[in-house]
Amino acid sequence: MFIDDTIAAISTPVGEGGIGIVRMSGKDSLSIAEKIFRSFKGKNIRDMKSYTMMYGFIIDPKTNEKVDEVIISYMKAPNTYTREDIVEINCHGGVVAVKKILSLVLQNGARLAEPGEFTKRAFLNGRIDLSQAEAVIDLIRAKTSESMHIALEQTQGKLSSKIKDIMNRLLGILAHIEASVDFPEDDIENVVSSKIIKDSREIINDIEYLIKNAETGKILREGLNTSIVGKPNVGKSSLLNALLEEKRAIVTDIPGTTRDVIEEYINIRGIPVKIIDTAGIRETEDIVEKIGVEKSKEYIEKSDLIIFMVDSSRPLDDEDYEIIQLIKHKKVIVVINKIDLPLAIDLDVIKSNFKEENLVFASINTEKGIEDIKQKIEDFVFSGEVKSKDIYVTNVRHKDILFKAKESINKGIETIELGLPLDIASVEYKDAYLKLGEITGDTAAEDIIDRIFSDFCIGK
Amino acid sequence: MYFAGSYDVIVVGAGHAGCEAALAAARMGCKTLCITLNLDSIAMMPCNPSIGGTAKGHLVREVDALGGQMGIAIDNTYLQSRMLNTAKGPAVQSLRAQADKKRYQEYMKHVLETQENLTLKQDEVIELDVKDNRIVGLKTKNGAYFECKTAVITTGTYLKSRIIIGDVSYNGGPNGLFPANELSDSLKALGISLRRFKTGTPARINRRSIDFSKMIIQPGDERVIPFSFMSDNIDRVQIPCYLTYTTEETHKIIRENLHRSPLFTGDIEGVGPRYCPSIEDKIVKFPDKERHQIFVEPEGENTEEMYIQGMSSSMPEDVQIKFYRSIPGLENAEIMRTAYAIEYDCIDPQQLKLSLELKFIEGLFFAGQINGTSGYEEAAAQGIIAGINAALKVKNKEPLILDRSDAYIGVLIDDLVTKGTNEPYRMMTSRAEYRLLLRQDNADLRLTEKGYKVGLVTEERYQRYLKRKKAIEQEIERVKKIVLPPSEEVNDFLRRNNSSEIKSGIHLYDLIKRPEISYEATKEIDKDRPDIPFDVAREVENQIKYDGYIQKQMQQVEQFKKLEQKRIPEDIDYNDIQGLRIEARQKLSKIRPQNIGQASRISGVSPADISVLLIYLEQLRRKKGE
């Protein structure tokens, strides 16, 4: 709980639009920006005047790599929305860049804003009229219950059980150090530094794994890998065009991939989806025997989601069966196309191989079923893991927490390796535990004490 | 009933809380009365014969730094002294001294008897007189009525106490003394909610019946560090303790007789402390542990009674005799006092303010074990604060509230008042967020100024503090200015201390920061080092060596203080605040936190609730400004 540290958030809608803004508010805004910004003309950001902009690049200070080309605007307190120093980073790389810039800002000293926090600060600092107070409270309440809802869903998820496992191991380290500190004369097994370092490293590995693999986070960073498969002429290209809608302009050929396979990024309800159109393979190689099963397999393996298209006006043939065998173990949406034509397909075969709820009946040419397909894609991304538009923020929050917890454990190891007493390192471990507790709602002091008494026989 | 006099402050009870409360109030110039059931039980230690220990030693030093008596009393009457955790960091090192129980009591009683403004009386307080939600007086068993402006209740474990020894149980206070059976009902009638806690103590055995050759001797430290900042050199001959262990036979006897233990038959309803389990508890909960440590400690110089630490029990007497005698060295043990469990009434401390005054009765303060704590040191810590605040109340001044970044005392009281406790509360260093700042070695630097401001710290103590503070600051300044050259002498010194050599000049200050280099050792390369006292040198070293960690915690404290300084008006009505969740509303209404920081520590109050509360307070402020 802080009231005047520096907060940051993405202030543009996620996943939509070509530009994004990362906003910071608080006294360290400018100095945080300084760490990650290089002016195009070599100017110093510290010399910026209030209400001016500067053009340059965001770089990752650890690798010195350019992240994006940006314009920074600076508004000096008190004449700002929050009455605190505000820095806004306008970037134009879409989702990937905005997200990367936000995490750089967080890694360099900012804290992710709580729901409604910019407005809250505006009010507390006298910027907003008294009559708006109720609205501020409503905003905090509404956003909090929304994110609590998400948090609740996540506590039942895999991520949460993994984090609880990590916390449990951290607590084991903490309780051992603390028991030996608070009960030096009790018969407690010696705390061995090398064991703590080994355990800490294992915990760090697990945290890093979580950071990398927080699944939805990955989807949002790289796009949901989706392959459209099906034999020729079932309507794959039509589906692709239909999904692209008027945003056709953003379609790009990603260089470096097989020329015959097209990867296209589209935005479906805020989710970046990378669609691999395998149609290309077939059309350049007209011999059916040379389908290049291996190549198709490779794409199917890489995909998070398969859209399998069949033509309902034709019976299933060997080619369909072959594809069914290839994709059976994947997450699949089956699009049964051309339902405006007389039905010739054996639906029972489809139903015996795929879940009924994943079937979509469509007639792409008449735009029937397109919305259903989009809905299915969205359901897939958010199923059981996350929900609603806050998914993005929530994951940034988790990543931020995981990152900061990792940093604390690293400092703990450093402290021990320097030869300083364990009770000093334990301060760092406690920090890490408290950080992770922000995800699960656990608090340190009582947890440690409970653990001491359950792990060790203590007392006069 | 007759009118027996009028006092500014009346302290009920003269245990470790009562003594500090009475002395503090009297020393601050209030006309003070201290009433106790038995004058011979002033400052009695009914359990272990020692003062201090981890975190508890910190509390004693803090009480001392504020101008309390406990530290001076133990420095005058200790039998053995040890600094615990010397292999660990400075923040968790704690003093513990074995006490000569009787001499400690005698010493403290005499201090109370000779204290100006303080009257001591043996009697039992049976009823509190409250008018218009304010304490105005109290009645005693002997028929006296005393008028008062404030009162401090420090009745320890005496309220409706019950002694349990196996299947035997009777109403009785600790150590064979009388219980106080009537005051509980008066408290209840005033609307104060009570609960029942339990604790226990081991047997006392005659030294002549113990074979020490089968035990390991535990001597005291060679260099004794005093508890009190007022004590100089207090070296004297120390009396050893002894270590032995339970045996398989001990565990067998206990297991076979578990059906006779009231803990397991359900005869004890009170909640006992987890850190102070009875021996039967330990054996049941940790069945794989082959043996448990038993420390045999002297109770005094002029007594043969020995305290058997680690073996508290509520087993029947005949079982006790058997299992005590199964321990190496105790085969022929002659038990002089039987181990017992004691159950007693205490109050739910969430009814108190941070000043230890009851929320709904003005002028009525509570301190010590009645607040649900355990330990002499925890009691003394609350006692001095309750005494100070009762006196400040009489003088119409703001109470002294120590927060979690000021002192362990602040952590203790905030925990009790804000979170409550489900078992007798014991202080532990892991309860303190800002542990690196709250060291036992700097208690005076943290608190003596505050004690001086409220008028408890004497001029003599204050001058000593100023002198020490200046000496520390000067030495650090001096060390900061010294640059050592990469000379052969310096590098030779570094080699001998297993430290890496230097190629260019280095500040002595930075050299002391190296974990392997002590301030003391650098004396040989620091030619102009002045002759400074041992305690000053230790403080200098700690402040330099842990500077980075200390700075980090100080930054955290800065954030913490901002929330702590946001006061919540006393008359706030949480039902008026739209947007608070019902649970938060109920908890806030019950605890009535005094500031936003305290509110944020209440379980069930979320950060969003705090945001709503902040906005409400801002609304209120602006409306008032209009």
Automatic annotation (TrEMBL), chain A:
Subcellular location: Cytoplasm
Cofactor stoichiometry and binding remark: Binds 1 potassium ion per subunit.
EC code: 3.6.-.-
An MF annotation (GO) of this entry: metal ion binding
A GO cellular-component term linked to this record: cytosol
Hydrolase listed as a keyword: yes
Binding locations of (6S)-5-formyl-5,6,7,8-tetrahydrofolate: R23, E88, R127, K460
GO process annotations (BP): tRNA methylation; tRNA wobble uridine modification
Keyword Phosphoprotein recorded: no
Enzyme class, UniProt record, top EC level: hydrolase
Pfam families: MMR_HSR1, MnmE_helical, TrmE_N
Keywords assigned by UniProt, alphabetized: Cytoplasm, GTP-binding, Hydrolase, Magnesium, Metal-binding, Nucleotide-binding, Potassium, tRNA processing
List of residues binding K(+): N233, T252, I254, T257
Cofactor requirement: K(+)
InterPro entries referenced in this protein's UniProt entry, alphabetically: G_TrmE, GTP-bd, GTP-bd_TrmE_N, GTPase_MnmE, MnmE_dom2, MnmE_helical, P-loop_NTPase, Small_GTP-bd
Stretch forming the signal peptide: none
Binding-site positions, Mg(2+): S237, T258
TrmE-type G domain ranges (all copies): 223-382
Family, per entry: Belongs to the TRAFAC class TrmE-Era-EngA-EngB-Septin-like GTPase superfamily. TrmE GTPase family.
Subunit structure: Homodimer. Heterotetramer of two MnmE and two MnmG subunits.
Role played: Exhibits a very high intrinsic GTPase hydrolysis rate. Involved in the addition of a carboxymethylaminomethyl (cmnm) group at the wobble position (U34) of certain tRNAs, forming tRNA-cmnm(5)s(2)U34.
Name of this chain's protein: tRNA modification GTPase MnmE
Source organism of the structure: Thermobrachium celere DSM 8682
Name of the coding gene: mnmE
From TrEMBL, chain B:
Keyword Transmembrane: no
Gene3D superfamilies hit by this protein: FAD/NAD(P)-binding domain (3.50.50.60), GidA associated domain, C-terminal subdomain (1.10.150.570), tRNA uridine 5-carboxymethylaminomethyl modification enzyme MnmG/GidA (1.10.10.1800)
Keywords, ordered alphabetically: Cytoplasm, FAD, Flavoprotein, NAD, tRNA processing
Gene Ontology CC terms, in alphabetical order: cytosol
Binding-site residues for FAD, renumbered to this chain: G13, A14, G15, H16, A17, G18
Superkingdom to which the source organism belongs: Bacteria
Domain tRNA uridine 5-carboxymethylaminomethyl modification enzyme C-terminal subdomain span(s) in chain numbering: 544-615
Protein location: Cytoplasm
Residues that coordinate or bind NAD(+): 272-286
SUPFAM superfamilies: FAD/NAD(P)-binding domain (SSF51905)
Cofactor(s) for this UniProt protein: FAD
InterPro entries, A to Z: FAD/NAD-bd_sf, GIDA_C_N, MnmG, MnmG-rel, MnmG-rel_CS, MnmG_C, MnmG_C_subdom, MnmG_C_subdom_sf
Pfam families xrefs: GIDA, GIDA_C_1st, SAM_GIDA_C
GO BP annotations listed: tRNA methylation; tRNA wobble uridine modification
Transmembrane segments: none
GO-annotated molecular function: flavin adenine dinucleotide binding
HAMAP family: MnmG_GidA
Assembly, per entry: Homodimer. Heterotetramer of two MnmE and two MnmG subunits.
NCBIfam families: mnmG_gidA
Family statement: Belongs to the MnmG family.
Purpose of the protein: NAD-binding protein involved in the addition of a carboxymethylaminomethyl (cmnm) group at the wobble position (U34) of certain tRNAs, forming tRNA-cmnm(5)s(2)U34.
Protein's recorded name: tRNA uridine 5-carboxymethylaminomethyl modification enzyme MnmG
Protein encoded by which gene: mnmG
